[in-house]
Write a structure and sequence with these properties.
The structure is a single chain. With 126 residues, the chain is an alpha+beta fold. The chain has one domain (2-125): 2,3-Dihydroxybiphenyl 1,2-Dioxygenase, domain 1. Helices cover 17% and strands 46% of the residues. The protein has helices at residues 14-25, 81-89; strands at 2-11, 27-35, 38-45, 52-57, 71-78, 101-103, 107-113, 119-125. The protein has an 8-stranded mixed sheet with strand order 2-3-4-1-5-8-7-6, with helices on one face. Strand 7 (107-113) and strand 8 (119-125) form a beta hairpin. The chain is globular, with a radius of gyration of 15 Å.
Length: 126
């Protein structure tokens, strides 16, 4: 079973973006981490506690090629990563098998491209 875990946005002003989502959409600050060369803040939705926004600060980060968009990726969470990997390996949609990574925050994850080029992350908290 998959559920949406978070959507990641690239932002130029982390503080203003944080205030915007807190004031207008009832998100609350959850945590801040340093990842690679970026500061990343997670906001928790107060109306759906399973949903988060991931704000990636671009202040000290080389800007990515985004074609005018601030969207970075959508993340689906699974409780059965092995079954999802099997589904991927049998799928006609996925041409190249993704690299599975484990991060220091306790998640096993991979990225794939959707059929329209969108970035999709699938993770399992371990």
């Amino acid at each position: 079973m998959l559920k949406i875990n978070h959507i990641a946005l690239l932002v130029e002003n982390l503080k203003e973006t944080l205030n915007f989502y807190e004031e207008l959409f009832d998100f609350k600050y959850e945590k801040e981490i340093e990842y690679e060369d970026s500061k990343v803040v997670f906001l928790q939705s107060m109306s759906d506690i399973s949903f988060k926004l991931e704000l990636i600060d671009l202040t000290n980060h080389q800007k990515r090629e985004m074609n005018g968009s601030t969207y970075d990726h959508i993340c689906f969470e699974t409780t059965d990563f092995e079954s999802f990997l099997k589904k991927l390996s049998n799928s006609e949609w996925i041409v190249e098998q993704p690299t599975v990574e484990i991060n220091k925050f306790g998640a096993r994850f991979l990225f794939i491209s959707g059929i329209n080029g969108e970035n999709i992350q699938v993770l399992e908290v371990i």
